Amino acid sequence: MANLKRKRGGIATSRKLRKLSPEEDTNEEMSVIDDGEDNGSEIEEDDDEGEEEEWDGIQQRQQADNLPPFKSLKPTGEEIRVIKDATDLYRSNSFKLQIHALLPNVRPKSMYSAPLDKFLLQLHEFLFKIPLVPPKQPLEVARALLKKGVSVPYSMPLPTEDTAWKVAFDKPSDITLVGSWANKTSVKGQDKLKYGVDLAVEMPNTLFQEKDYLNGRFFHKRAYYLATIAAAIINPKTGLKNVEVSYISRSDDPRLTKLVLEPRPDGSASDFTKLNARVFIIPVLSPDCPIPLSRLSPSHSNIRITSDADSSDDSKSKLPTPLYNTAILTAFTPKSHLLSNHNLQQSCPAFNDALSLLRIWANQRGFGEGSDSHPSVRGFNGKGPWWAALLEFLILGEEPTSSSSGKGWGKAQSRKPLGRGLSSYQLFRAALDFIAKHDFVNEPVFVKTKDGHKFLPDEYQSNHEAVFVDSSSTVNLLADVPIGSLKLLSRDAQKTLETLSNTSLAGDPFDEVFLQDHRDLQTRFDAVIHVDLATVSPLEKPIHTALDAGSAQNAILFSISSLLTRALGNRASSISILHPSPSTRPLSQANPSTLPKIQIGLSYDTEHAFRQVDHGPSAASAEADPESVEKFRRLWGDKAELRRFKDGSITESVVWEVKTVDEKSHIPVMIVRHILKHHFALGEDAVHTWQAPFDSLLRLPEQISRFYVGSGMAMGFKGALGAYDNLVKSVKALDDNELPLTLLNVHPISESLRYTSVFGPVPLTPALASALPMNARYLHPIEFILEFEKSSKWPDELKAIQKIKLAFLERIGSALMAATPGLTASVVIGEGSGEESDIQDTARLEIVTPEGWAFSARIWHDREATLLDRIISGTGSLPHVTTKSAEKKSKVYHDAVRAREVYTRRFIHSPAHHRAIAKLCHHFPAFAGTVRIVKRWFASHWLLHGHISEEAIELLCAAFFVEEGWEEEVDSGESEGGENKRLRRDIPGSRERGFANVIRFLKDWKWEEGLQVPLYSPSPSLTEQDKGLSSKKAEPTTAVPGVWRIFTLRDPKGTAWTSRGPDVIVARRISALAQATWKCVRNMEESGKVNVQTMFSHPTSDYNVLVRLDSSVLSRYHHNVSPDVSLLDRRAASSKKYANEQGGVVIRPGFDPARLLFRDLQFVYTDTFRIFHDSFGSDHFGIVWDPALREPRPFKVMSRFSSLPCVVQKGTDKEKSQAKTGKGQSQKEKDLVVLNEGGVLGEVERLGKGIIKTITVHA
């Protein structure tokens, strides 16, 4: 900090309070905030100039300086406005301060700009000294320059030996610094991208003729002019010595090639390496150039060359060339853009900061320069002028238009300017609001001009997809931007506005808006398709399209975008092509390299994305409009066919055949694959996505699934729901004589009935089980709860209630078996956890239907909660009398606490949770798949069930789908026939995107802060289920081992599903695993090689002990992530294992020996080690010793772990310290013990006899 001292005899003033011009204010701000070392040195030098004295107060200071006495002043209107803005507009002072602190840190450091200024002066003098070259034939001079190592970047159509016109070089008529550097609006790019310094070199008019707008003549002359400058700079005798020179082409368009000058570090006065900048030399035209502007309108045809295929049709040779014309017009605009931006800076002080904020926001989302690891959105490379023109349009308004078509113009005319008095943040939000709401397809934009329109407005809209004409009224700045990219931009703007307007955020949204990198493809798009362009071969190759686009590659990318937009229709809200930004190339390479690969990002409209039929023209309209039928068939190829539908209509159609729900979610990608194959000859090996590998993680191996498919039984979630409905009907159909009380409700609580179980539920009949191997016979029981009417017949004692439940279940089971032949039912007591008591609900009815479905029924009696609360609170049978005891809590108390926890979770939370999650699955198509993949990930890393519950994972995933009021949104959508507007714009439309979002969240989640999930909507009154949850006075305030807190309206403490885990160790392990998984995701994005299996392969080197199980006796081995398929073949197994099955196979619902052994070991050795296991068929346990037990400690009785005496070995630090002090071991030191690891492992092996195969101890 600066010293609070002043110099004698002078008035100390603050440099930051000095009134500055916008440019001075920017530089001063940077010097104060960023250049701490320099500022510090300046302060010390100032202090050394005079004698110092301590600060002695305001009054003494006023007297010493003869100032008028201090008066209390009221805040000015400007100060009041600033305070109000910080409260209302920014929502917090910290957000405003963060923005002001951000801007100086993203702008170039002025302290490093002096060498650049010197270099630009040298370059300016050098360019004027380049000798002129007389007019020569284009190919002749190209051969001469090639001998010097410089290729001339001629664009198509290339000049020939017969070309009559000449190229020449003369000194520039003007050299101007243009672009963002000249206007001081440069901002730091992503991936350490260098600042760009644009130098406009104006080519003299004498080099051009009126007809140079035809057939690329202007671009050829421009290319030679640029190559001549490059040859002069690299000349070893007369050139510049301290720069590297290369070519770069904006949007990989050879017509827009420019020179790149990068410094060589030599320590000279003109070495601007520290500035991290590079200079671009851009040849431009003067406003009075001989090339007439009237010939460059979007509707003019300036390429008069046809291919053999087009020669038969004269109309094709006169097609408009809007992109070609726009490329020529860009040579006129650098100076006009410079002047318009400068005028805005003078009239609107907030323009610079607003533009900087907008550019920062865009860079964080890929709307700028990109790299191999983070590709940019196509169309936004080099679009700096558009961002400035967008703010200019908002500030000044737009030019009035009149149109014969009238499409979209009325709304455009009513748009009014915002004015010049807004703050930078207000302008930034206004720009986002415009982007989010503007219809770029139907609403053209013309920025306000001085001289009116130069071209007819109709010409732009008829020849461009999107129209945004700059203030010079010449260039459509969005001419080469695909509509899909603009839709993605609009979606990102909507999402940002939601973030800025979200009042439920705990802190300010600064990091989310300006700092967080949003370029990760898997979290941004519902489907990411990697396309290898090495073998691309377009079905149609019109030469005109390639010449207009600038290159064959650009024409292919435009065609891909256009065809996919037509084919997908309303299935996708945006279709984006992403690829790295153009890179520099050596001067010996004339044209830019072709892109080896691209990524296609799809954002689904989930209401339409997964339909199976696309309808085309009807058979009746085929005669009237045969062209539409031909167009439909040309788009779809052999996939199109004429079909008759149930309503009697006969139409051209495309049908996508799918067999499962998982395959149905692949339909958009199937469409992309078909279009790329049909139109571009890109086969399966050239198109990659990671959807199919995820399918294998959620399906049974083919060796097992073929038995189910061949059986013809109803399977999956639909089959389970049907079996459940039939069972409920059977229970409700029982006579009143068979049930002493009336059945009120049946509550499903199983993940198999809410679409979120990892594997689709399947039945298991004895006949099917006999055909399956022993390690593939697991039958998962589906749980539900029976609620009977309230009655005084129930006893008022907990133990008696449990006995009555047993009688009820036995009566129900007997009645069902009598009513349904083939149904079996048995009463089961206990959970096998070792913590049950006789006052806890432990009884259930196990039912196996004739179709092979297993169910588990429990009885809910609300009186249990009251009786348990009385025990916990100590009131006993007299609620008004409370017995306070200072004695240690009894066993009955602890049993009641555990029973109350089980009751609340099982009978209160579970039914409500099930209803909410099932509703989510119905409303959000991607939610169920996301939950299943995330559960599979947790299980594959040995965490699910043992350390984290399935319900906690479902809540975690729900956080990415729900927003406050989502239930009202669903209800309103249903009442309006399914048409509803989502509250959120970033809801995943695919399970893959949902999974990536969860992993990215877990890797950085500060679980100490918890997670709020608005799963339930607030209601005016509590339901009966809520009443059991509202009596919080009886709940004990004991610590819980789980550290995750997932808050909901029904669970304000956030511990309903996380009270038993994960604990601190497991929570940190989850973060580490998520970080490693995210690294795999990023590697797949960068390489394009999809290997999903690596994210679900669990590392085992961190475990102290690895226990291997016998795979042949594990009933769920077929659920393993990577099973040994040879073990799933019954014919390869030993015949002795199946010798005792001659009398038939016994179905054991829920029987999993590995899981049972895991629970026993976890309960018995809870104070000794942590054990990990994948409940989905893993054949390994992982054990981590408690590190504290491996250190010597004094022996104690009842130490809760197996120990053995510890002997202090010679040479240890302890013995050396004793030798120095001359003291021997005390009695306590002789009685030290450590963990008996060998003994514990021996006990584990004995407990797991018949299941455990080997035990491996890691050093």
Automatic annotation (TrEMBL):
Location of the protein in the cell: Nucleus, Nucleolus
Statement: the UniProt record of this protein carries the keyword Transport: no
All copies of domain Nrap protein, residue ranges: 197-346, 350-516, 522-680, 709-922, 924-1098, 1101-1255
Organism superkingdom: Eukaryota
Chain segments carrying region Disordered: 1-73
Family recorded in the similarity comment: Belongs to the NRAP family.
One Pfam family matching this protein: Nrap_D3
TM regions (residue ranges): none
Acidic residues composition bias: residue spans: 23-56
InterPro entries listed in its UniProt record: NOL6/Upt22, Nrap_D1, Nrap_D2, Nrap_D3, Nrap_D4, Nrap_D5, Nrap_D6
GO biological process: rRNA processing; tRNA export from nucleus
Record's keyword terms, sorted: Nucleus, Ribonucleoprotein, Ribosome biogenesis, RNA-binding, rRNA processing
Name of the protein described by the UniProt record: U3 small nucleolar RNA-associated protein 22
Entry annotated with the keyword ATP-binding: no
Annotated Basic residues bias: 1-19
Molecular function (Gene Ontology), one example: RNA binding
GO CC annotation: CURI complex; small-subunit processome; UTP-C complex
